[in-house]
Every structure is written in structure tokens, then in C-alpha cells.
Amino acid sequence: MKATMFDRYGGFGTVHRVVLAFYDRMLDSDIVGPYFDDVDMAALVDHQTKFISQVMGGPASYTNEVLEQVHRNIGVTDEAFDEMAGILQRTLREFEFKEEDVHSVIADINSRRSYIVSRK
Fold first, then answer.
1. pLDDT at position 31, please?
2. pLDDT (0 to 100) of residue 119
3. Residue 104: Cβ-neighbour burial (10 angstroms; 0-12, 13-18, 19+)
4. What is the pLDDT of residues 20-49, one digit of tens each?
5. What is the pLDDT of residue 16?
6. Which residues, given as ranges, of the chain have pLDDT below 70?
7. Residue 14 CA, distance from chain mean position
């Protein structure tokens, strides 16, 4: 059986470190930082760790409907989504993910844009 990306990079421990670095950068962004002004960051990091783990073939499971419900009243714009994806891409590269794996994660995230970005 072929190891998943989640297994190859060390499982939840690695994903958790990536997510912590990712949110450090997100909070510093003028575009996406304000989205987190009143957010329980510990809970968000936990959820995002599980979500990214799922994207990497790990054991967590988030449906697109859950993503849509969670983001429904946040007002995420296309600009904010693009900023988030760029920050995640740079973070994965800094953690020395292979380029094909970075592309796979970002492609998966981009495929869920319609469930995250608000449509008016």
C-alpha cells in the first residue's frame, strides 16, 4: 500500500507545525489578518490541522457542505482566498514539501473555492 502524503510528511505533528506557521503569516497579512480578529485561534488551528491532514490523505474528514456552513457568514472574498492560498503555498515550500505535493494541496484547496468564498 502506497503511503499518503500525510504519512510521508510525518502525520499530524508536521501538519500542526505547518498550520501554526501558516496562521502566523495569515495574521500578519493586511488582506486576511482582519478575518481573525475575534477568532479562537487554538480551535481554528485544530480544525485547520485536521482539514489540511484530510487534503493530504490523512484520517480527518470535512465535507464541502461543512466548509460552506463554516464560511457562510464570514464574507471571504476572492482576494482573501487567493492570499490564503499563496500563504499556504509559501508555507508548504518553507517546510520543504515537494513541488508536486504543494501543487496537489493547493489544487485541492482551489477546488473548494466555491464553498469558501462568499457569493452575493
1. 97
2. 77
3. middle
4. 999 999 999 999 999 999 999 999 999 999
5. 97
6. 120
7. 14
Buried b or exposed e, range 8-36, using 16+ CB within 10 angstroms:
ebeebebbbebbebbbebbeebebbeebe
Q: What is the DSSP string of the chain?
A: -PPPHHHHTTTHHHHHHHHHHHHHHHHH-TTTGGGGTT--HHHHHHHHHHHHHHHTT-S----HHHHHHHHTTT---HHHHHHHHHHHHHHHHHTT--HHHHHHHHHHHHHTHHHHS---
| Encoded amino acid at 70, one letter | V
Distance CA 60, CA 49 (A): 9
